[in-house]
Amino acid sequence: MAEAALGLGTNLGDREAALARAVDLLAAMPGITLGAVSRLYRSAPWGLANQPDFLNLCLLIDTDLQPADLLAACKQVEEKLGRQARVRWGPREMDVDILLMPGVEMDTESLVIPHPRITERRFVLEPLSQLVPDWLLAGGGTVKSMTAALREKAAEQICEPDEAATRKFALLRAC
């Protein structure tokens, strides 16, 4: 089995319920074993500003799926949660991205691992740093050091833990 870090985000509907459902759907997929789940972070939209704030989290999984099959599983979860094709970086019911798989580097038309913009997005690095602060990223920095650098460089990127959302998410997952 291989480890992988996934990033999930949504800014439409009942965001905590959608994230809880997405995590549960991923955990139920053959070939995926759920590991740690970060708390939820509220973040301002990235790319297209005129839309609701996002809730994001990261999770660790163990998987025996090949990267393309893991991507298919992520897309299946998005589809089950009603993801609609819209404008790039626009509102979404659910987004599930493969962020990192230690030892895996690939760049195809449909999948790039590590995620190509991971070091530019606080809404990815903040929850990821909670889970795997010592994992190395491109450029040689750790998740923790790259998170600290991005906090300074991109302080305008609002990304903060949302404890109320995290509690609601935890309660929904416990049911």
Outline the structure in words.
With 175 residues, this protein is of the alpha+beta class. It has one domain: 2-Layer Sandwich (Alpha-Beta Plaits), CATH 3.30.70. The chain contains five helices and eight strands, in the order E-H-E-E-E-H-E-E-E-H-H-E-H. Helix 1 (15-28) packs across helix 5 (163-174) and helix 3 (122-131) packs antiparallel against helix 4 (143-153). The longest helix has 14 residues, at 15-28. The two termini are 29 Å apart. The mean pLDDT is 93. GO terms for molecular function: 2-amino-4-hydroxy-6-hydroxymethyldihydropteridine diphosphokinase activity; ATP binding; kinase activity. Its EC number is 2.7.6.3.
List keywords for this structure.
single chain, 175 residues, alpha+beta, Alpha-Beta Plaits, six-stranded antiparallel β-sheet, two-stranded antiparallel ribbon, 8 strands
The helical percent reads: 25-40%
From the coordinates shown, what is the CATH architecture? 2-Layer Sandwich
CATH superfamily: 7,8-Dihydro-6-hydroxymethylpterin-pyrophosphokinase HPPK
Mean pLDDT: 93
Q: Rg, please?
A: 15 Å
Low-confidence stretches: none
**Which CATH first-tier class would you pick?**
Alpha Beta
Distance from first to last alpha carbon: 29 Å
- Apparent shape: globular
Under CATH, the topology is which?
Alpha-Beta Plaits
Percentage beta strand: 15-25%
Q: List the total number of helices.
A: 5
Number of domains: 1
**Extended strand count:** 8
Strand-pairing-aware structural class: alpha+beta
Task: Give helix and strand order, one letter per element, not per position.
Answer: EHEEEHEEEHHEH
> Sheet with the most strands?
6 strands, antiparallel
